[in-house]
């Protein structure tokens, strides 16, 4: 149970930290190789590019977990109380619908790459691993949105706000 709680709290951040360390190493190694050793290392640019893609999609899940996604909130400012909470839940459901569709499209793309494999030019990495960032990231984002919706509904049921806001519940 402690492991599940720890993963719930830290999983995406742990992945991003690992990818960021690897990304940083790749970039620093490229600079050292190019300017100090006078020799370009081909794998560093490709590695950094693919890690950046993965960090972007995993970062979407982190933003979702913390309710930090960019959104137009003009409607939220026009309504107060419980209506505001319901509007927030509706917005989260709509966003979750988008993430489900994006994950499904990513799965279709990955299935195509499994049927007709492609490899990256330098690393020879199967491109399905690069494109898998979309369904994995959007899948995690979907789970985090669902988690936020459930927490919001439970908080409303108990008569409390699940997050600090100016409009109240």
From TrEMBL:
Pfam families: DctQ. Keywords: Cell inner membrane, Cell membrane, Membrane, Transmembrane, Transmembrane helix, Transport. Residues 27-152 form the Tripartite ATP-independent periplasmic transporters DctQ component domain. Signal peptide: none annotated. It is a multi-pass membrane protein. GO terms for cellular component: plasma membrane. GO terms for molecular function: transmembrane transporter activity. InterPro entries: DctQ, TRAP_DctQ. The keyword tRNA-binding does not apply. One of its GO terms (biological process) is C4-dicarboxylate transport. Its main location: membrane. The chain crosses the membrane at residues 15-36, 48-65, 86-114, 126-143. It is found in: Cell inner membrane. Belongs to the TRAP transporter small permease family. This is TRAP-type C4-dicarboxylate transport system, small permease component. It comes from Lactonifactor longoviformis DSM 17459. The lineage of its organism: Bacteria, Bacillati, Bacillota, Clostridia, Eubacteriales.
